[in-house]
Amino acid sequence: MKVGVFDSGLGGLTIVRAITDILKGADIYYVADTAYAPYGQKTTNQILERSKQITDFLIENHDIDVLVVACNTATSASIMYLREVEKTLMVVGTEPGIKPAIETTKTSKIGVLATTATLNGDKYQVLVDKLSKQKEVTLFEQACPGLVEQIENGDVLHEKTKSMLSSWLEPMRENSVDTIVLGCTHYPLVSDVIQEVMGYEVKLIETGSAIAKRLKSLSCENGHVNEGNLNISILHTGSINTNMIDMIFENSKQNEKIIIRKCEI
Helices 208-221 and 13-22, interaxial angle, to 10°? Predict the structure, then answer.
């Protein structure tokens, strides 16, 4: 089985990392679209067009069977179009974990960290409107401009990163938020910093494991035999921080073969 995955940069590798925990016998082609990063500050039409280009690249060059849109922003902008046009392709999207957050919270106060594009997107608004009817909660939504760039540069523990998060998290801390949705696939990479800034233990909701389980289920339903080794190709359109890649796959449960190379899309 051939799996295509893409994100604006390294964030989607947190989902690939979760996939490696449960999926076997597959070739994974990951596009880190660093030349066009970050997506969160682009228009919906720009993100849709880029998502189409990357999907076409993965189909034409790697003959993928399934596509994982490992980006909340790109999912919001393109998932409906991709599912409509690529009818023979299994397409799995990413969305903020509002539902598990609602099920988890004890204080009914939930923080949401995401990009501006995700928070303003119709898909997110529909999701919140639908799920908030299940339980009365207060959402503390916070866009995080510049955080993706800090992570891409490897400045996860930099004082600037801590300062940015401290400013954004202050209202959540003051209002006893007990659950925070990480609404961007990059943000799990600063989980430790978020916990430190909050000053008390909070539940951080990320979606990597849920997406991995969905991918495995869909694949096996369509004849995939979950045995054998994984081969991972990390294709980047611009510069990339290989130290961050090493950090993401540190202590991986499987011995994946990882190839890193630049590509033109």
Answer: 50
Residue 47, SS3 per DSSP: helix
Instruction: Give pLDDT, residue 131.
Output: 86
Weakly modelled stretches of the chain, pLDDT under 50:
none
CB neighbour burial string for 201-211, b if at least 16 within 10 angstroms, e if fewer:
ebebbbbbebb
d(CA 240, CA 152): 8
pLDDT in tens, 149-172: 999 999 999 999 999 999 999 999
How open is the CA angle 70-217-53, to the nearest 5 degrees?
Answer: 30
The catalytic residues are 71, 184
Do 37 and 152 meet the contact criterion of CB atoms below 8 Å apart?
yes
pLDDT digit string, tens, across residues 178-210:
999 999 999 999 999 999 999 999 999 999 999
Going by C-alpha positions, the residue among 4, 19, 1, 9 that lies closest to residue 57 is: 4
DSSP string across 103-123: HH-SSSEEEEEE-HHHHHSHH
Contact 264, 238 (CB under 8 A): no
